[in-house]
Design goal:
Radius of gyration: 20 Å
Shape: globular
Strand order of the largest sheet: 1-3-2
CATH class of the largest domain: Mainly Alpha
Low-confidence stretches: 5-14
Number of domains: 2
Mean pLDDT: 87
Number of helices: 10
Number of strands: 3
CATH architecture of the largest domain: Up-down Bundle
Largest sheet: 3 strands, antiparallel
Order of helices and strands: HEHHEEHHHHHHH
Strand content: under 5%
Structural class: mainly alpha
């Protein structure tokens, strides 16, 4: 009987953990994709009903998102979605350049065939979508976002530092939030981005770290500049 009781407890714990993980992923995505708008008050009772979870589970998940920088905890006043501004975007861009470019240099220094195969595979998927996304962004836009992230992540995956990858991912998600807000009013220049991706790939495969890092730094900056001129973001800042 004790064994059955133990199994039941474990089952409840697993179920609760799965629910929390799923809620975290949903809220995280809704913040990044702009479904939960910048500056919005995240009221526990209303969100709990919308996401069909308990108030305690919602509070716990929002606290976790706050520690990740995707939600702002305001003490007794609750939680809000972080506001956006040109200054914040500039800061995020500089941090992403610092972290991602360093990670790329380290990945190239540790380059091997497995890493090369991974970035080539990710680039292949991205390039196929880039060839069609401009003609039908509604159909292919989400795939482009996913494969773009996969390619950028593969480039730096060989850096050898778990912490570097963790902090860089946080900055990537913050920059992605700005890009998704921008896409609501103005298309992202994916054709230009496609050319830059090919140049970065070629430099990485040639193990030319200086050129690859220079190209990646400019690529990240151009993406941020495109977002910065967006009228919606300008009005919010």
């Amino acid at each position: 009987m004790s064994d059955d009781h133990s199994k039941t407890d474990h089952s409840k714990a697993d179920s609760s953990g799965t629910l929390t993980a799923q809620l975290y992923d949903r809220l995280r995505r809704d913040v990044i994709m702009g479904t939960l708008e910048p500056g919005a008050k995240l009221k526990l009772e209303g969100l709990s009903k919308s996401y069909e979870v308990s108030v305690n589970t919602m509070r716990e998940t929002l606290s976790r998102l706050a520690s990740d920088g995707l939600v702002v905890a305001e003490g007794q006043r609750g939680f809000t979605v972080p506001p956006v501004s040109i200054e914040d975007l500039r800061d995020i861009t500089q941090m992403r350049q610092l972290l991602e470019c360093h990670a790329l240099r380290q990945s190239i220094a540790r380059a091997d065939l497995e890493w090369e195969a991974q970035i080539v595979g990710c680039y292949h998927k991205l390039s196929r979508v880039e060839a069609v996304v401009e003609d039908d962004p509604d159909r292919w836009g989400a795939d482009w976002e996913r494969y773009n992230e996969e390619f950028h992540t593969a480039l730096i995956a060989n850096c050898g530092s778990r912490w570097l990858l963790l902090f860089r991912q946080a900055m990537y998600e913050q920059s992605q939030r700005y890009r998704m807000l921008s896409l609501k009013t103005r298309p992202f220049p994916r054709a230009q981005s496609a050319n830059e991706h090919k140049l970065i790939l070629d430099a990485a495969l040639a193990r030319d770290a200086d050129r690859a890092v220079s190209l990646l730094e400019a690529h990240i900056l151009k993406g941020a500049q495109t977002v910065a001129v967006n009228e919606t973001l300008t009005k919010r800042s």
